[in-house]
Amino acid sequence: MAYRTIIEPFRIHSVAPLRMTTEAQRREAVKAAGYNLFGLHSDDVLIDLLTDSGTGAMSRDQWAAIQHGDESYAGSPSFEIFRSAVQELFPFAHVIPTHQGRAAEKILFTALGGTGRVIPSNTHFDTTRANIEYSGAEAVDLVIAEGRDPVSRHPFKGNMDTARLDAFLTQNAGRVPVVMLTLTNNSGGGQPVSLENIRETSAVCHRHGVPLFLDACRFAENAWFIREREPGQGEREVSDIVRDMARLADGMTMSAKKDPMGNIGGWLALNDDALAEQCRALLILTEGFPTYGGLAGRDLEALAQGLKEVVDHDYLRYRIRSTAYLGEALAKAGIPVLQPIGGHAVYLDAKAFLPHIPPLQYPGQALAVALYEAGGVRGCEIGTVMFGRHPDGSETPATMELVRLAIPRRTYTQSHIDYVIEVCGEVARRAPTLSGYRISHEPKQLRHFTARFEPLA
Ligand SMILES: *Cc1c(COP(=O)(O)O)cnc(C)c1O
């Protein structure tokens, strides 16, 4: 008997309270935060879907692993345990622990970036792009055309446009130090990249003598999609698919706050000995000694255990299905969501949701604020606020205006998600009355984190 309901494959072991708030309290709180949801106190948030980064629940076995942490400055056995867990899935010669993904990016692009260089990806994540641009290099997105179309049902919308990549590498010969591939494609809707596309991208890169690095934050979710959607992959172990993905690349950057189930952590892994030596020297400058990087021994232990748990098929089936549950319910209620539903998040299409608000009045921001005011649900704008400002000071609309509802791992139950569905329905009813925003203050880099807004009208 195959039952319809896919249950959470865990029992709750420890709980944290949610503080109930009224709409009036939330209107006050968000106004005081300059209408920037990053500025809220999290006590004022009921269901926090701002990010799935570092917000998941660790398992009993991860908490137990924390007790094994060895805090020796050099040569800690916790590092060996961490490194072998990483290499079990990603057999790169060098594993360099960092405090999060962006620290790995900073080190890699300090070594490889610089003025005059260009670094293509399917789509760069915001911190990746910012670290590339900070080095003086240019970040270029070459995702397939379907990846930029919110209604296309392509099964692998994260795929690299390999024909464009090939032409790009010819035109920019000598200027491209590395090609990145983001798995899954976070900024493009949490969409997966097929194994076939990773293989083609790898072949194109290597034909041009350029290394390929994976931004592999959601490697397990990506591998699950490959298993479910790619011909010939349906019977395979996810860990085998992950190893195939890794063997096609020359290195990786990683945020361990995503699929490795950590609350903090990251790493840089690679095969090139000389580059690894250069990266370790940079690591010592800002992160720490190479056997702990930016982490405590206990964090390394928790991540090693998390890496074992995330490739479990029961977990991944539940994870991908529960994200789809939210997305399908919203679509059924007539709410425009990016299709197909991604792995870690549901993306509301704010352009379709609020067609009366022009891009430079930030429809995604307007929608995100409305969801918070109506129900205390915190999502994240991924649109013109995040991507509209360029290093030369100009501002243009982003390709898509999205609000991401990211699902923390193993944290919320189905009734929490049913509540989110209700809140989205209420905001849909209010949509015609919502207005746009203007930015009253913004920093030079990564403005979405600290900008302040004022409502128009
Ligand atoms: C989160 C993320 C990063 C950055 O990692 P942090 O740990 O937040 O610094 C890089 N790339 C992608 C795709 C991400 O999702």
Concise description?
The protein is 40% helix and 12% strand.
Structure description:
The strands form 5 sheets. The protein has a 5-stranded mixed sheet, sandwiched between helices. The chain has a 3-stranded antiparallel sheet with strand order 9-12-11. The termini are far apart. It is globular, with a radius of gyration of 21 Å. α1 (23-32) crosses α14. β5 (179-182), α7 (195-207) and β6 form a beta-alpha-beta unit. The chain has 2 domains: 23-45 and 312-455, Aspartate Aminotransferase, domain 1, CATH 3.90.1150.10; 60-309, 3-Layer(aba) Sandwich (Aspartate Aminotransferase, domain 2), CATH 3.40.640. The protein has 457 residues and is of the alpha/beta class. Helices cover 40% and strands 12% of the residues. The protein has helices spanning 23-32, 60-66, 77-89, 101-112, 126-134, 162-171, 195-207, 219-229, 238-247, 273-286, 297-310, 313-332, 350-353, 363-375, 384-387, 414-430, and strands at residues 47-48, 94-98, 118-121, 138-141, 179-182, 212-215, 251-255, 266-270, 345-349, 377-378, 380-382, 402-406, 437-441, 452-455.
Assembly state (oligomeric): single chain
Rounded to an integer in angstroms, the radius of gyration calculated over CA atoms is 21 Å
Which cofactor or ligand species appear? Answer: pyridoxal-5'-phosphate
The number of strands is 14
Give average pLDDT, whole number. Answer: 96
The share of residues in extended strands comes to 5-15%
Specify the helix fraction band.
25-40%
Give the overall silhouette.
globular
- Reading off the top of the CATH hierarchy, the class of the largest domain is best stated as Alpha Beta
Q: Total domains, how many?
A: 2
Unreliable runs: none
Order of helices and strands: HEHHEHEHEHEHEHHEEHHHEHHEEHEHEE
Give the number of helices. 16
Give the CATH H-level superfamily of the largest domain. Type I PLP-dependent aspartate aminotransferase-like (Major domain)
CATH architecture of the largest domain: 3-Layer(aba) Sandwich
Distance between the termini: 57 Å
**Biggest beta sheet summary:** 5 strands, mixed
Order of strands across the main sheet: 2-8-7-6-5
And the CATH topology of the largest domain? Answer: Aspartate Aminotransferase, domain 2
**Class derived from helix and strand content:** alpha/beta
